[in-house]
Hints:
By secondary structure, this protein is an all-alpha fold. It has one domain: MOB kinase activator (Butyryl-CoA Dehydrogenase, subunit A, domain 3, Up-down Bundle), CATH 1.20.140. 51% of the residues lie in helices and 2% in strands. It contains 7 helices and 2 strands. It has helices spanning 2-9, 27-40, 45-48, 57-79, 115-130, 148-176, 180-196, and strands at residues 92-93, 97-98. It has a two-stranded antiparallel ribbon with strand order 1-2. Helix 1 (2-9) crosses helix 7 (180-196), helix 4 (57-79) runs antiparallel to helix 5 (115-130) and helix 4 packs antiparallel against helix 7 (180-196). The two termini are 21 Å apart.
Amino acid sequence: xxxxxxxxxxxxxxxxxxxxxxxxxxxxxxxxxxxxxxxxxxxxxxxxxxxxxxxxxxxxxxxxxxxxxxxxxxxxxxxxxxxxxxxxxxxxxxxxxxxxxxxxxxxxxxxxxxxxxxxxxxxxxxxxxxxxxxxxxxxxxxxxxxxxxxxxxxxxxxxxxxxxxxxxxxxxxxxxxxxxxxxxxxxxxxxxxxxxxxxxxxxxxxxxxxxxxxxxx
Length: 217
């Protein structure tokens, strides 16, 4: 139900990047279908994120990292007209939190960027990683690298910052779009998942400990 609602609320033509898809017939595709079926069934989100019996934790994490990338990409892509160089000259989460960009190529030191610049760099960087067969292998029998969960922690930590920025700086726009309930559900799903597998340092979660819309996770 949530996936359907998201499609109705958000404009798929405004996604930042093409959606990453799972190949039919693969184990990852079957896991993705299982996860989506659980979501649509209305099960408690805390139960939905739990590892299904007999499944590989790395496959489960890989499926969710790609799915969260797709959904957060969709949310921000639709919000991007409200997030401009003028309105958001610094990538931040209120006055207390500022996020600087660093990678292994262009920005070797933490660099202050506008929110739109940061988002572009982030989506490019994640897309590069999830399409890298050495990190996210799709072929049967090819193992995940030893640093796989470490890479996923970094991806999810940076995706969490998108929620921080959108909630703190663009929540009025979310309400005006009628998207509040859907963004909240996506965030709760993300939050329960990263807490279930301890994938983000708790200090990163501090900006949204008290949600602006009045509920706490």
